[in-house]
Amino acid sequence: MRLRSPHDREILRLAIPALGALAAEPLYVLADTAIVGHLGRPQIAALGLAGVVLSGAFTIFNFLTYGTTAVVARASGAGQQERAARLAAQALWVSLAIGIVLVLVCEAVASPLLRGLGAHGQSGAFALTYFRIAALGLPAALVALAGQGYLRGVSNLRRPLVIVVVANVVNLVLEIVFVYLFHWGIAGSAAGTAIAQAGMGIAFVVELLRPHAASKRPSLREMAPMVRVGRQIFVRTAALYASFLAAASVCARMGDAQLGAHQIGAQLFFFLALVLDAVAIAGQVIVGRMLGAGDADGAYDAAVRMIAWSVLVGFAFTCALLPLYSALPQAFTDDAGVVHEARELWPYLAVMQPIGGAVFALDGILIGASDTRYLMWSMLAASAVFIAIAALSLALDWGIVGVWAGLDVLIAARLVLLAARFAGRRWAVVGYA
Asked: Are the C-beta atoms of 304 and 6 separated by less than 8 Å?
C-alpha cells in the first residue's frame, strides 16, 4: 500500500464523519444488549431473537440510504442540483410509505414469526414484548435511512453524524431510566429505542424537505431511479440478512446459551462492519460523483485506494479483537454458559475482519456505480452456500463453531465474486443516466 495518494484527503473528509454516524447506529442494539444482558439469560436470549428480526427489518431496507446516495451523487456530479433536491423529497415519501406498511405487518405477524424462529417459554414471551414495542420506531428509522442517503449524496456527512449521535445519547439515557429506575425490564429497553428513533426521524424529515425543488409532491417518475437501484440492493441485503437470520434460528435450536452468544457476536460483527463501511460510504459518493462527471479512470484509482484502506482497518480490528476473547463477552453478560459459547465463536469473528473490509469497500464502489444487479446475484449465491453450512451445523452437531465458520465462508465467497467484477471494470459507466 502506497503511503500517500491524492485521493486520501477526500476519502478521509467523507469517511471520518461517516464513521461516526455508522458506528453510532448499531449502538442502539449494543446498548440494548449490554443493559438487557444483565437482566438475565432469558432476557438476552429474547433480545437475540427479537433484535435480529428488527435489525434485519432495518437492514434490508437500507436501500433507502444506498439507492438514494447513488442517484443523488450522480446527479450532483452531473451538476443537476435541482434534480437532487427533487430526489430528496421522493426518498421521504418512499421511506414513509414502506415504514407504515412495515410496522403494521410486524405487529400483525409478531407472535407466529417469533415462534417460527424458535422462540419458546419465558425467553419467547420476553421476545414478543420487546418486538411489539420496538417495532413502533421502524417508520422513523426508515425516514432516517433516506435522510442519510440524501445528505451523503450531496457530500454533507456532518449533519447525519450530529443527528445520530444525539439520538444515541437520548436512547441510552431513556433505557437506563426505564430499565433501572422505572423497573420496566426488557419493555423499557424497547421503549427507549423507539422514542429515540422517533426524534431522529423528525430531524431527518426537516433535512429532506430543506433543499429547494420545483415540486416536492410524490411522483412515480421521479422515484423510478432510486427504486430501480433500490430493489436490487434490497434483494442483496435481504439475502445477507437471511443468512444471519438462519444463523440465529439454528442457534435458537441449539439452546439459550448459544443464542445469547450469537447475539453478542452478531451485534459486534454489524458494529464493526458499519465502521468498516465508512470507507464504502466514501466509495459510493466519490465513485458516483466521478462517474456522473465522466471520469471513469479517476473513479477506478480512488476505488483501489479505498479497498486498500478498508483491508488495513479490518486487519487492525483483528489485532484488537483477538486478545479480548475472554474480557469483552463479559461486558455483555454475567452468564457463564453464554460467555463460554462467545469464546468459541470469537476467532471466527476476528479473522473475518480484513476480508470483510475488502468486501464492504467493493460493495460501496459498485453501489456508487449503480452496478447493483451484479451485487444482488453474487450475494444470493454466497448466501445459498452459507445456509447449507448452517443447516449442516445443526444436523451434525457442529455447534456455534460451525455456524460462525460458515459466516467466514460467506464473506470469503463474496470477496471472490466482487473482486472479479471490479477487475473487469464493466461497472465504470459514466454519465447521469
From this structure: no
Q: Quote the CA–CA distance of 245 and 58 in Å, as a whole number.
A: 13
For Cα atoms 358, 361, 366, give the angle at the middle one, nearest 5 degrees.
120
SS3 at position 52: helix
Asked whether residue 299 carries a pLDDT value surpassing 90, the answer given is no
In this structure, what C-alpha cell is assigned to residue 400?
456455534
Report CA 22 to chain centroid distance, whole Å: 8
Cell numbers 458506528 correspond to: 23
Amino acid at 163: I
The span from the CA of 326 to the CA of 314, in Å, is 20
Kind and range of the H or E run holding 160? helix 158-176
Q: State which amino acid sits at residue 296.
A: A
Does pTM surpass 0.70? yes
**404-413 per-position pLDDT tens digit:** 999 999 999 9
pLDDT-derived band of residue 25, with 50, 70 and 90 as boundaries? low
Reduced to 3 states, what is the DSSP secondary structure of residue 187?
helix
- Say how far residue 3 (Cα) sits from the centre of its chain: 30
**Among 269, 272, 264, residue whose Cα is nearest residue 328:** 264
Tell me how far apart the alpha carbons of residues 318 and 231 are, in angstroms, rounded to a whole number.
33
Cβ atoms of 287 and 425 closer than 8 Å: no
Query: How large is the C-alpha radius of gyration of the chain?
Result: 21
The pLDDT assigned to 1 comes to: 54
